[in-house]
Amino acid sequence: VIRCKAAVAWAMGKPLSVEEVEVAPPKAGEVRVKMVATGICRTDENLRQGLFPNIDFPVIPGHEGAGLVESIGEGVTSVKPGDKVLLLCVPQCGKCIFCLNPESNFCLKAHFHESQCVLPDKTTRFTCKGKQIHHFMWVSTFAEYTVVPDYAVAKIDAAAPLDKVCLLACGFSTGYGAAINTAKVKPGSTCAVFGLGGVGLSVVMGCKAAGASRIIAVDINKDKFAKAKELGATDCISPQDFKKPIHEVLIEMTGYGADYTFEAVGKQETLAAAMTSCNVSTGTCIMVGVQKAGSLLSIDPMLLLSGRAWKGSMLGGWKMRDSASKLVSSYLEKKFNLDVLITHTLPFPKVNEGLELLRAGK
Ligand code: NAD
Ligand code: ZN
Ligand code: ZN
User: Which residue range or ranges hold the Alcohol dehydrogenase-like N-terminal domain (predicted)?
Assistant: First the structure.
């Protein structure tokens, strides 16, 4: 058993509390990882606020992490102690119907199908003050050590800087993949991206890499525009600068609507606007933002009759055990710029400050 620090969400809506926890050794088929770096994604804040579905408190959040394998359980062959790894919040068991389908990355071991608040044997490896603490998406990266099933880690290049490539474990891969894999953006097309957080900025990078000729970035926080432009946005607009609804503005700007729209905010109004502002016939709206658990959206179904498509994208469509090391190699070959997404670097005990910066839009 390792004693170390972890950030525990004891109850919905409360700040995280950095505590000493015990982390049990990995059981068969599991891997214990020493975390080196973790990003903060809006989904961690949604979890803390109770917006994310099927979460059992107390829980250790965090799902955008990179670290070093500390020890392995019986039967683990894919990694060994000392290996650099990314933790996979969407696992790849390699055996389920969707893992066997080359067009899907929705492993049946993913949280939306099977709760990842306990490990596959239905127990947790974390305790604090005598209480069992739950895992989040199995990976719980807001801890100095964590235990995950072996199909939720991927070995990466020993040269990878973990404080950068941790972003490949969620934000960057999600946004970039939504454009490249899910939308399959075509050269010369017009894209609109709602929300310019880590995810939305990565969508902008994906659209640019795919050869989009126009990328309209939409956010209510204009401080995000400089970075969006640096990454390839051709226009940046705030819905608050217009009297008319933003979908009307976008339809006017593009003629008949954008070829591809991406929602990377997680709000109903931006999702409805993204659907309405892609073009009437061949337009595709990609939903990336996570909507509040249990919410319902009222839209006119006739939006789809003329041919529009509405698709979701989870972790950018990547099968992560196959893709993690390729994404890391592409980063090392400077095929995309992750570093620009990093706004602040904090020591782990300041994780609440990190969440505060996220809430403040910084
Ligand atoms: P973030 O909070 O960093 O960014 C969200 C951005 O949306 C902010 O810049 C904010 O100013 C902007 N925004 C808020 N209201 C807006 C409005 N009305 N119109 C336009 N812009 C608005 O969040 P993030 O970490 O980039 O995550 C974005 C979303 O993606 C979240 O919902 C998150 O849960 C989700 N997510 C989904 C996946 C997936 O696999 N599908 C993976 C990671 C994150
Ligand atoms: Zn995330
Ligand atoms: Zn699977």
Answer: 28-157
Specify whether 145 is located in the same domain as 191: no
Residues with CB under 5 A from ligand 3 (ion): 93, 96, 99, 107
Q: Per-residue pLDDT tens for 292-339?
A: 988 999 989 999 999 999 999 999 999 999 999 999 999 999 999 999
SS3 2: strand
pTM score: 0.97
Note the pLDDT tens digit of each residue in 140-171: 999 999 999 999 999 999 999 999 999 999 99
User: For position 50, which CATH number holds?
Assistant: 3.90.180.10
With CA atoms as reference, report the closest residue to 262 among 220, 309, 222: 309
- CB-based contact 66:327 (threshold 8 Å): no
Q: 92 and 18 in one domain? A: yes
